[in-house]
Amino acid sequence: MLLELRLEPLKVSFVEIDVIERDLGSFKDQGSISESIDPRHTPATGCDAKIDVLPGNKFWDRATSSVDVRFLIEINGVPPLHKLPQKWHWGCQWRVHYGVGGLDSKNKDGAVIIEENQCFVFEKLALANGHSYLNSSIKKFGCFVTRNTLNLRYFFGPENKK
């Protein structure tokens, strides 16, 4: 999911300002059997990189998870690597940033812009005919994206429309 974010008020230009996303930790939800899929919020998964604010006060955020479906299903009698359902949250904080970014640049962070909780859900759902399929969802900034192995289609929209 690629989200276009905007800093407000739009009457003020923030083009010369840089922002950075900082990890506040992850935790599994009470209904989750495990959190083995959680790759942790690291620079490789999108935090600690300096982001330029573009004209119109916009910048981009990517919310993604790359879980190989082969590790979620039984294959030839071999049980899956990960047990489902799994649901966990990543806390993150968006800050003004005055440096080049990176994990070791926290001393160059300025004011907090917003704190956000991302939610990741992986589940196995049953069909009336006895078959099952996998469903994954990511929620962030009031938006969500979901994909399933039933029809391999994505759905993206506001969180309250799902």
Your description of this structure?
There is one protein chain. The chain is mainly beta and 162 residues long. 0% of the residues lie in helices and 46% in strands. The chain contains no helices and nine strands. The strands form two sheets. It has a seven-stranded antiparallel β-sheet, with no helix packed on it. The protein has a two-stranded antiparallel ribbon with strand order 1-4. The mean pLDDT is 86.
- Quick one: how many beta strands? 9
Strand arrangement, major sheet: 3-2-5-6-7-8-9
The proportion of residues in beta strands is over 45%
> Termini distance?
15 Å
> What integer is the average pLDDT?
86
Strand and helix layout:
Elements: E1 2-6, E2 18-28, E3 50-52, E4 58-62, E5 86-97, E6 109-126, E7 132-140, E8 143-148, E9 154-158
Antiparallel strand pairs: 1-4, 2-3, 2-5, 5-6, 6-7, 7-8, 8-9
Q: In a few lines, what is going on in this structure?
A:
The protein has no helices and 9 strands. The protein has 162 residues and is an all-beta fold.
